[in-house]
Amino acid sequence: MKLANKIAMITGAGSGMGKAAAILFAKEGARVAAVDVNEAQVKETAAAIAAAGGHAIAIRADVSKSDDARRMVEETAAKFGPPAGVYNNAGIEGDSNYIANMTEEQFDHVIAINLRGVFLGMKYALPHMVKAGGGSIINQASIAGMIAVKGGAAYSASKAGVIALTRVAALEYGRYNIRVNAICPGAIETPMAQRIRKGEPPKPRALNRISVFGRMAEADEIAKVALFLASDDASFATGAPFVIDGGWTIS
Ligand SMILES: NC(=O)c1ccc[n+]([C@@H]2O[C@H](COP(=O)([O-])OP(=O)(O)OC[C@H]3O[C@@H](n4cnc5c(N)ncnc54)[C@H](O)[C@@H]3O)[C@@H](O)[C@H]2O)c1
Question: How many domains does the chain have?
Fold first, then answer.
């Protein structure tokens, strides 16, 4: 098992990629603190882990709120011990609007969750990780942080910010044996992707544009990358944006 006896805290664990990662990390031996603003959903994740014989707790927290972010780390540490793996995955798509039509509230809301949420997750976890002697932080970015998406000013800016934060954190905390990496997924079939498509099935032409394989990824295909980054297999990986996009951005 790749994470035997390790403690992992995963935000946005009530759905999509966070849920897939929580289940996979637990299967690989980790004790998992599953965090989400949606209490019912994150309890379901923890229950699924327990039903499979794993160890998990569910924590309701809004990652954009300082008090919640501090508490999610403290509850994890109190229940299991300091987290050795932190996956700051929670995020929202926000409203799509061209810049002149995007309200300041729409912009700020996305930045608060996607960017400040990652900052707060690191800010409160890092002291525990330093004291524990090291660990791995994984921040969820997106290829939208590298390429432009019409209507996605706030989202793209937030994800580019996550990549920048990741690099700074890697530089600052390498000496404490803490690795910090970002995952940049392409198009992944999750409830978020389904909301963006307004429940419609993906169109074949669109699928061919967003991946050389002509398909979206399953959440589990990203969870496996998170598992690699959380595990000792990734011992020399830090400060890097890991693009997992089925070839979307190669042309
Ligand atoms: N789906 C994609 O194609 C795609 C592509 C690139 C990046 N991403 C990113 O991956 C991450 C996960 O996305 P997903 O597709 O699994 O989405 P999802 O909507 O299925 O899951 C996101 C989870 O985050 C939770 N969440 C939202 N705001 C929160 C907050 N303030 N505090 C705590 N939890 C909160 C939601 O309740 C939900 O359970 C996001 O950061 C997203 O931006 C998604």
Answer: 1
Interacting residues of 175 by C-beta distance below 8 A, sequence separation 6+: none
In a domain, 205, yes or no: no
pTM of the entire structure? 0.99
Q: How far is the CA of 38 from the centre of ligand 1 (A)?
A: 11
What is the Cα 230 distance to its own chain's centre?
12
Q: What is the distance in A from the centroid of ligand 1 to the CA of 190?
A: 9
Catalytic annotation present for 155: yes
Q: Which domain covers residue 153, as residue numbers?
A: 7-186+222-240
Question: Looking at the domain assignment, is residue 215 inside a domain?
Answer: no
Is the C-beta atom of 76 inside 6 A of ligand 1? no
Helix (H, G, I), strand (E, B) or coil at 235: coil
Alpha-helical (H) ranges within 16-113 are 16-27, 39-51, 66-79, 104-110
Q: Which of 87, 98, 124, 155 is catalytic?
A: 155
% pLDDT > 70, the chain: 100
